[in-house]
Amino acid sequence: MFQVNENYLKLPGSYLFSTIAKKVSAYQEAHPDKEIIRLGIGDVTQPLAPAIIEALHKAVDEMGRAETFHGYAPDLGYGFLREAIVEGDYRSRGVEVAADEIFVSDGAKCDCSNIQEIFGLKNRIAVCDPVYPVYVDSNVMAGRTGTYDPETEVWSDIIYMPCTRENGFVPALPEETPDLIYICSPNNPVGTALTKEQLQVWVDYANEKGSVILFDAAYEAYISEENVPHTIYECKGARTCAIEFKSFSKNAGFTGVRLGYTVIPKELKCGDVALHSLWARRHGTKYNGAPYIIQRAGEAVYSPEGKAQLKKQVAYYMNNAKVIKEGLAQAGYEVYGGINAPYIWLKVPEGITSWGFFDYLLENAGVVGTPGSGFGPSGEGYFRLTAFGNSENTVKAIERIKALKG
Ligand code: PLP
Q1: Do 32 and 90 sit in the same domain of this protein?
Q2: Candidate of 132, 137, 317 to mutate for ligand 1, largest count of ligand atoms within 8 Å of Cβ
Q3: Positive or negative CA dihedral for 296, 88, 103, 124?
Q4: For 52, which of 10, 236, 296, 386 is 20 to 30 Å away at the CA?
C-alpha cells in the first residue's frame, strides 16, 4: 500500500483564507441582502496598466507567427527581463546584482516556499510572529518543524520572533541560533518596515552565525520612507548571507498574471557549495520557465510608461491605506503600518479576540478583515485590513466602522 507524506497531516486546520471564505459565505447565505466589503485577503483590485496590456497584446501577436513564436522559455528567465530587473531594481539604486543571479519564476509564493528544498532537513528556521503563513506551512510539509501544540499554536522546532507593539514590530535577535531566517520587509501582515540600520543588524548576525536570510520583498514598491531599504543588498555583507524574493503581484497587479523572481548571489555558499548552483539545478529540473508573454509584460513594468502608470497605481492603494489608518485612528483604534506597506494592523479592543473582532465587524459593519491570530500566536489581539480594495469601498467600509463607534 502506498504511503502519503504524513507531514501534510500535521498541518493544523485549513489555510487561513479558506476559513475566512467559509465564514463569509455562511454569513452571506444567511443574509443575502447585506453588502459585504472585503478588506481581508491581500489581492489587488485595479486593472493592469495600459503599458502592460500593450506588451501582452504585442507578445500574443508574436506567438501567432512562426518567425516570432516562442516555445519553452529559458529555465531561469529571458535575458531581456533579467536585464530589465537588474537595471530597474538594483543598478539604478547603486546595488550590485548580476543578471545571471536573477531566477525568473511565476511568483514569490512558490519561490519562498520551494527554496527550503535546497536546505537540509535539520536546519532550524526562525520566523517573525505574526508571519506570512506560507513560510511555516511549507516547512511543515517538508518535516522540518517538529510537533505542533494546538494549545499554544507553536511548532516545537521553529524559533518564533515576536513582533508586537511593545518592540515596535522589530524582531529581536533570537537566543537560539537559527540556520534559516525568514524576514519580510515591508511586512505582511503588520504593515511596518525595517530601516536600513535595523536590517543591517540581521545581515551582520547572519554572517557571524553562518545563517541564511530569506528576505521577502514582495511589498517593496510601497516604501515611502527614505531610510527603508528597497533590497537587502543595500546592506553591507548581504551577498554572502541573503536570498531575496520579489513579486510582480503587488507593484504591478500581476496576482492573476503570475510573475516573480529570486536573487541568489554567487558568493552565498555553504563551504564550497554555491546555493546559486543548487537553485539553478532545482529550477532547471522542476520548472519550465514563466511564459514568454508574461515575461514581456514584466519587462513593460520597467519601461518609462509602465513605471509612471504603476507609480499612480501604488499611490491609489496607499491613499486607501491613509483613509483606513486615519479613519480608524479617529474612531479611537490603535493603528500601525500603512506607511511603507498596503496593510493596516490594528489593536482589537480589550476583552475580545482577533476572531471575535472578525465576527463583530462582519456582522455589524459587513466588513471582512483578517484576524491577527491567523498569522501566529503573537498576532492574537490584532487585526489586518488591506488597502487593496477600490477606493469607494474602502471609504464606505471605514465610514461603517466609524459609525459603530459613534
Ligand atoms: N510574500 C508575501 C509576504 C505575500 O504577502 C505574498 C502575497 O500575498 C506573496 C509573497 C505572494 O506573492 P506572489 O503573488 O508573487 O506569489
Answers
A1: no
A2: 132
A3: negative
A4: 386
Let me know if residue 104 belongs to a domain.
Answer: yes
| Residue 297 within any structural domain of the chain | yes
E strand spans, 256-378: 260-263, 269-270, 273-274, 334-337, 343-347, 367-368, 370-371
pLDDT digits (tens, 9 = 90+) for 37-93: 999 888 999 999 999 999 999 999 999 999 999 999 998 999 999 999 999 999 999
**Distance from residue 216's CA to the centre of ligand 1 (Å):** 8
Q: What is the CATH number of the domain that holds 58?
A: 3.40.640.10
Q: Are residues 224 and 246 in the same domain?
A: yes
Range of the domain at 261: 52-304
Total residues belonging to the chain: 406
Residues 27 and 56 in one domain: no
298 and 360 part of one domain: no
- Is ligand 1 within 6 A of the CB of residue 132? yes
Prediction pTM value = 0.97
> In 3D, which of 335, 249, 332, 342 has the Cα closest to residue 298?
249
Please determine, for residue 294, whether its predicted confidence score (pLDDT) is greater than 90.
yes
Which triple of cell numbers denotes residue 38? 472585503
Q: Which residues contact 322 (CB under 8 A, 6 or more apart)?
A: 338
Q: Which residue has the cell 535546497?
A: 118
* 189-230 per-position pLDDT tens digit: 999 999 999 999 999 999 999 999 999 999 999 999 999 999
Strands 125-129 and 158-162: parallel
406 confidence band (pLDDT: 50, 70, 90)? low
> Ligand 1: which residue has its CA nearest to atom 9?
109
Separation between Cα atoms, residue 395 and residue 406, nearest integer Å = 16
Q: How far is the C-alpha of 404 from the C-alpha of 173, rounded, in Å?
A: 40
CA of residue 396 to ligand 1 center, whole Å: 27
CA of 298 to the centre of ligand 1 (A): 16
Alpha helices in 255-303 (DSSP H): 275-286, 292-300
Q: Is the CB of 255 under 6 A from ligand 1?
A: yes
Picking from 304, 329, 363, the residue at the C-terminal end of a domain is 304
- List the residue whose alpha carbon is closest to atom 1 of ligand 1: 218
